[in-house]
Amino acid sequence: xxxxxxxxxxxxxxxxxxxxxxxxxxxxxxxxxxxxxxxxxxxxxxxxxxxxxxxxxxxxxxxxxxxxxxxxxxxxxxxxxxxxxxxxxxxxxxxxxxxxxxxxxxxxxxxxxxxxxxxxxxxxxxxxxxxxxxxxxxxxxxxxxxxxxxxxxxxxxxxxxxxxxxxxxxxxxxxxxxxxxxxxxxxxxxxxxxxxxxxxxxxxxxxxxxxxxxxxxxxxxxxxxxxxxxxxxxxxxxxxxxxxxxxxxxxxxxxxxxxxxxxxxxxxxxxxxxxxxxxxxxx
Amino acid sequence: xxxxxxxxxxxxxxxxxxxxxxxxxxxxxxxxxxxxxxxxxxxxxxxxxxxxxxxxxxxxxxxxxxxxxxxxxxxxxxxxxxxxxxxxxxxxxxxxxxxxxxxxxxxxxxxxxxxxxxxxxxxxxxxxxxxxxxxxxxxxxxxxxxxxxxxxxxxxxxxxxxxxxxxxxxxxxxxxxxxxxxxxxxxxxxxxxxxxxxxxxxxxxxxxxxxxxxxxxxxxxxxxxxxxxxxxxxxxxxxxxxxxxxxxxxxxxxxxxxxxxxxxxxxxxxxxxxxxxxxxxxxxxxxxxxxxxxxxxxxxxxxxxxxxxxxxxxxxxxxxxxxxxxxxxxxxxxxxxxxxxxxxxxxxxxxxxxxxxxxxxxxxxxxxxxxxxxxxxxxxxxxxxxxxxxxxxxxxxxxxxxxxxxxxxxxxxxxxxxxxxxxxxxxxxxxxxxxxxxxxxxxxxxxxxxxxxxxxxxxxxxxxxxxxxxxxxxxxxxxxxxxxxxxxxxxxxxxxxxxxxxxxxxxxxxxxxxxxxxxxxxxxxxxxxxxxxxxxxxxxxxxxxxxxxxxxxxxxxxxxxxxxxxxxxxxxxxxxxxxxxxxxxxxxxxxxxxxxxxxxxxxxxxxxxxxxxxxxxxxxxxxxxxxxxxxxxxxx
Lengths: 283, 636
Fold this sequence. Notes:
Chain A: This is Nucleoporin SEH1. The complex is a heterodimer. By secondary structure, chain A is mainly beta. Chain A has three helices and 16 strands. In chain A, the strands form four sheets. Chain A has a four-stranded antiparallel beta sheet with strand order 1-2-3-4, with no helix packed on it. In chain A, strands 5-6-7-8 form a four-stranded antiparallel beta sheet, with no helix packed on it. Chain A has a four-stranded antiparallel beta sheet with strand order 9-10-11-12. Chain B is built from 30 helices and three strands. Chain B has a three-stranded antiparallel beta sheet, with no helix packed on it. The model of chain B is unreliable at 1-23 and 32-48 (pLDDT under 50). The interface between A and B is large, with 48 and 52 residues.
């Protein structure tokens, strides 16, 4: 097993840090954190200027670890006004953008127009999306069908708490596929984007004016009563790994007949569970 | 104590590590909670150790070559293959598997190679079983087909035969003296090769004098297995068995235990099969064809599953079926979909499932029910995904995605290739070659953009510009060109030899045109063509494309070049009067624009402003002097 090396310890937030996200490697080694203290911090790994070509550099692949590398906070985004609950970098082809949401249901999207100048981030969208807490964000990576779509709609039938949302990788589909963790279930939706060509041709520049969304629930994945905490798609969008509150990870796979089945279950070892008296998992 | 979970995944190594963490508070700081990582559990969801093995690579390459051939032949036949072609291709696939087994067996044995050999042998066995069940013409006897399976797949018969004959040849002794002689005959009987059994028996040195052997030889000669294809011949076969039973019970073979044992096999004596399993055969399914032949010669496909389970229960006592056994049962139950699924669930077997399914789909056989889902496409795609995890196999992976027949294959490929890790320029170029070959536009854009940004961050401006030009989007080129003007030293711009090979690509962006022209200015200066250099510099200033910060460079260059000219004996300035006047107007305009632009800029930038103002003053003075020199030159 690989050894974990403590590269750096930063105490920059004034409250609990909820999420840590990496930007796409295209933009270098960039990290964002969000916190209970209403802020989002952007960090960048920098290397000292040296003529020694063998040392690693920030970039697409920074290569070997070098203790002279330094993490520097480039910007603190403080416009949230409330506990920032989630952050997500946009797909790299949209540029260096980050979406944030907070406990008051507000969503703010920032963009660093100059990817080399991480000190300057402008707000490209700001709005009250929900009346209550917004806990999860996801960007669709579909670059063939209106790729700049994030989760905005609320699904009226969902009565349990939504703990996580995650778009599937686009894999060239003509629609967006979304997994929503609701209580003990994972609900999978197909989201079709319809364009009204008449409206589009009438000089409506904002695509929200001439597009509409149609959601279709295609599957419900349910196994036991434990709450689903996290979900993640594989690269092709036919496998979901889900972390449950009972500490179990289940891998769901779409079979040949388009049914979803649990193909693998990963459980914590009994010895460690009993030693620490695991009473459940929370985050 | 509270606990939470964290997981990390390593895409290339195919491992997922789950950590639990516990939080505790110390006595000194009870309010502060510290976290400690515990419970690290590593799960590998892909046995990459075999995929990285060089012999596995060879197998993959061989399979790919056969697969490509199959696709090209199928395209000529409208997407299907004739049965004869399928059988030939199957043979090639199995030969590749056996070659791989031979190569691995020549290596030092370890856990990985042992597992790999087991997987390969199982694949060989299953492939030929699939062929026997699903890839034979209609109207044949399953009993005969399974015997063919035995002859093709089970090596124990061939190995024994070769051992006996080769030893005899090398030592010069009669082969019937070999201790394995009778085992060899039994083995031929078990795989239904009665001709070989007959030859072995008649070649016995005592055959001419041994009546029992002659009787047995006669029985072997009468057993023509192919006759079982016709159900009408079943009675003849049963009649032969009855005759053997009568010979045995009347004591005709009482003086030869070996011949008596062979007779008990021929009449389907279950005790004989148990003895063989304990002494000769390692796997119960190797006896299945003979068991069906001699115990149920008239069996058809519907009976085979139950017969095989009966045999398993007879021979394997107290053990649950292993995966291979389950897969064999599933194949024999004609649920090929489930069998493929079982194969897929076996680690490192996706290559096998994908190619086998491809062959099954290529046959125009009503026995194969498609269940209205494209399993072939799914498997080829999954297989391609595993190949994408190994850099040496990327090109092959691309081929499989394209041959999958999926509607969105190109888009999938575009996305997948763009996400591959780019460790260095060499790999980037390799990926771009793939993009060019298959016209993957978006991947090309992503890769070139990623490389551009990489070199930008490293301040390798020439490289960044090269990659931006390869990206061929005006936006990126302009962005990089502006950054070069802002951050690169003027000397380094003059050394960017890439401008020599740009051809008309510099027209991509006005900023690039500007850079190109500045490079030309430097080259002219180096070669001593000062007049052309000065004119070029004037054009650069006139263009107005340079960022304000770069104007200091332009003014400095202009001042130097004109000053050098002014100090010479020749009073003629490098630039004409009209141009000098234009330049002076431009200086004034620039000064005014700068004043407006820099209003409100903090004090710490005053130094730059002061430097710029002083350069403008110097240049203005030099321009006036040039004007004066021109006037003087006119009068003299």
